[in-house]
Amino acid sequence: MRNGHMENEQQSVRRFEEQFAAFERRLNGERTTEFHKVRQRGIQTFARLGFPTARDEEWRFTNVAPIVNTTFTVPVTERRHSDFPAHVSAEFLEDAYRLVFVDGSFDSGMSSTASLPDGVLFMSLREAMRAYPEILQVHLAPSGRPEENAFTALNDAFLLDGGFLSVPQGLVVERPFQFVFIASEQPDPQIIQPRNVLIIGEHAQATVVETYVAEQERPYLTNCLTHVAVGPRAILEHDRYQNESTQAFHVGTMLIRQEAGSVLTSNSINVGGQLVRNSVTAVLAAEGIECTLNGLSLGTASQVIDNHTTIDHANPRCNSHELYKSILDGRARGVFNGKIFVRKDAQKTDAKQTNKTLLLSDEATIDTKPQLEIFADDVKCTHGATVGQLDENQIFYLRSRGIDETAARDILTFAFAADVTERVHVESLRQRLEGVIHARLDRGRRNG
């Protein structure tokens, strides 16, 4: 069995190497840029590392064999505007500046960038690489990256497009910025690999929403990588909402670097996907930083949703707060691995990590592993994990007030989720999330 897996993995690696060669030929003049060195190094790293297995500590609870065993095609480099069904357009936030990508390529027809504040750069990454290469070279280079694996290397190899945002020093932007990534209707499984770069200048303030959605239920792989740089005393809320096909695979990586006095809130909501891996790494690179990581996963049927987080307290007097919740029904399985590192010089650290899981069926499972590694002595750090089912006493109380059992369970389940969704400050997105959660709970009851 092991030999069969290795053979499939080798075949998969060779297929991507062949697809890279074809992709490289289509790039024409872009092969002469500095960014192409990132691509070449990416395919070499991917070939060397191969896909992770259960022997890799960071992946031992998540079997990526379904990805390895699927033959993916790389989309063509250009897509035209097309009409999408209502459930896709419903994900567009009316109050936001918006960039839309179809199968990883920018679609200007569905995007909305009118009336941008002076000094804001908000465009496709492909355009930004042409217009502002000196800015992007630092953020796209893999050197010094705190996380390196086959998926980040593969994203490097096929680096082409995604979202780019730069907010200048001192500017407070009230309207949110939204990146929408749509997987279109296609006959064959594709691999879609967006790359996003967010730069928030000193004393600036912004809200960014990343949305991932599918036109139809079909298998494909989204392998996305987002770089976030939060400048000194800047404030950023980043909301990441993944509601892709339940036949799809989604591997998302977010790399955050915060500077002195900055404040970051990350809300990661995972609803769709057959196999989902959400990785967030935050480096607190100076003093006086506030970092908050929140997450909500809603798994039904046989979904697997894996959340890995790392907060690196590299400097003194920084605070971090982490709350990740999972609601699992049917045969769904969740994974949570949260790491907090407190370096030797990071005195006066205050870090709190909480993981809570609600199991709605006897077959749903969770593997949870909160971790603290502390090398300083003047710190206040706590972590904990709880796993349980709905409280029968609370259900009884609601039923005694005339609420039927199904509605009582939904009320309690939604209240569990609302602890995270209420932390999303974009009202239109929060309302959308609440509607999707209600619909998914209903579907979970019907499908089991």
- The oligomeric state is single chain
Q: Using the alpha-carbon principal axes, give the shape.
A: globular
Mean pLDDT over the residues = 92
Helix content: 25-40%
Strand order of the largest sheet: 2-1-5-8-10-12-14-16-18-20
Elements, N to C (H/E): HHHHEEEHHHEEEEEEEEEEEEEEEEEHHH
Terminal Cα span: 30 Å
Structural class: alpha/beta
Strand-residue proportion: 35-45%
**Low-confidence region ranges:** none
Sheet with most strands: 10 strands, mixed
Cα gyration radius (Å): 21 Å
Q: What is the count of β-strands?
A: 20
| Total helical segments | 10
What do these coordinates show?
With 448 residues, this protein is α/β, with parallel strands linked by helices. The chain has a domain at 2-286. The chain has helices at 2-26, 35-49, 65-68, 86-89, 125-131, 133-140, 150-157, 392-400, 405-421, 427-447, and strands at 97-102, 105-106, 121-124, 163-167, 177-183, 191-192, 195-200, 205-214, 221-230, 235-243, 249-258, 263-270, 275-284, 290-299, 304-313, 319-328, 333-342, 349-359, 365-374, 379-388. The strands form 2 sheets. It has a 10-stranded mixed β-sheet with strand order 2-1-5-8-10-12-14-16-18-20, covered by helices on one side. Strands 3, 4, 6, 7, 9, 11, 13, 15, 17 and 19 form a 10-stranded mixed β-sheet that branches. Strand 1 (97-102) and strand 2 form a beta hairpin. The chain is globular and about 70 Å long. The model has no long low-confidence stretch (mean pLDDT 92).
